[in-house]
Design a protein that fits this description.
One of its GO terms (molecular function) is catalytic activity. It comes from Streptomyces mesophilus. It holds the Pfam family dCMP_cyt_deam_1. This protein has six helices and four strands, in the order αββααβαβαα. It is an alpha+beta fold and 142 residues long. The protein has a four-stranded mixed β-sheet, sandwiched between helices. Strand 3, helix 4 (87-96) and strand 4 form a beta-alpha-beta unit. Helix 2 (57-68) packs parallel to helix 4 (87-96). The termini are far apart.
Amino acid sequence: MTASDDHILLRGAIALAAQAGESGNPPFGSLLAGPDGTVLAEERNTTRTDRDITAHPELKLARWAARELDAATAAETTLYTSCQPCGMCAAVIQWAGLGRVVFALSGEQLLDIRPGSGRPPVPQDGPALLEEARAAVEPYYR
């Protein structure tokens, strides 16, 4: 459940989304706040201007947090974002150890706005060569 303080910060993420759109990028924006609500960092989508399909604001902030914050501090942060993180960003947010995500527009609502924008899943085959893969990976984790 979101609170009025969340709404203030969420409006900041929405403003960043508008700025991204004005610069020719998809209109998505995010900011990362500490436990007291202080904005630690903010990002806009730059997938077009950077020519980088991974330049989502949520991913860029999660990478920043993993690089700049210790684990305990990262766990106390909240990521405010104009749209629910995609699967790629959600995975990176989890790996970065961020504490919470608050979003304005759900992924389902986004598809209602721009239908047909999803991509088909890529077929995957495996597991295969388990013992060979284990021999390469296991020593790292011991």
